[in-house]
Structure formats: structure tokens, C-alpha cells
């Protein structure tokens, strides 16, 4: 089973049939995918600083590469300077970014999306905890869209994120 998903089809043929059903459902609801922006049967996906592959979910090695290359401090002065720099960096990151929960497994995800006359927004949640969110202002031409089109735009925006 790819990515260790419990409800996912086990073979490429089953995936293809499942994909066909999903695309037919989307077409029936007049929602269309742009295939030039779609990728199927990937062996690895990078998402929110993590890598998802057949072995599970891992921290993206590129995100921790610089930390692994840090030289170990030797003297008390170097240790103090290192800790002060690390604390300042941690403080900056915590103050500038929202606190998000890490995903637990690969089940029970819910995506909420909404639109207003000002912008589009989406939240990815799992077990009532916020995993990720995104929002953006409407582009000038989007301000003329109908409510239905804005809501659809919010869904597309959420799926792209």
C-alpha cells in the first residue's frame, strides 16, 4: 500500500479505477482538474516540511541539513554564545509563526475552506487540531466573481496548498 494508507487501493490498477471514479464524480459536479498541474503515482511527496513515502512520514532532510553541520561548541563562552543564538532564533520563529499541530498518522483529515469578498482561506485539521492553514487576498478580477465561483476558488486554493 503506497504511503501506508489503510484505505488506499493496493495496486496501480486499483488506484487507476479509484481515480477514474473520483474524476467522474468531479465532472458530474462540474468541477474539473487541470491535468498539466496533476501528478499521479508519485513514490515520494514533500508537504509542510515533511516527506511522505512508502515508509511513512519523515522530517524533510533538507530542513535539518544546516543544523547537522553546526560545529559543536567547546568552551563555556562558545556554549553561551551558541545557546543565546539558538534561543534568539527559536524566539523569532515562535513569535513569527503560528503554533500548528503535527499530523498523527494519515487518517481523519478535514479541510475547511471559505471565501469572502476580500479573500480565500483554507484550514487543514486533524482531530480538531490545526495542522496547516493558508489564505490570500482576492485578485482584482476575482472581486467580480459570483459567490459560487469564489467558494469554488477557495476549494481549488485549498487543494493547491
Which structural class should the secondary elements be placed in?
alpha+beta
What is the chains' assembly state?
single chain
CATH superfamily of the largest domain: Reverse transcriptase/Diguanylate cyclase domain
N/C terminus separation: 24 Å
Coarse morphology: extended
Poorly predicted runs are none
With strands numbered from the N-terminus, the spatial order across the biggest sheet is 1-2-3
Compressed to H and E, one letter per element, the order equals HEEEHHEEEH
- Total DSSP E strands: 6
Report the CATH architecture of the largest domain: 2-Layer Sandwich
CATH overall fold name of the largest domain: Alpha-Beta Plaits
Number of helices: 4
Q: Write down the CATH class of the largest domain.
A: Alpha Beta
> How many domains would you count in the coordinates?
2
Largest sheet composition: 3 strands, antiparallel
Amount of helix: 25-40%
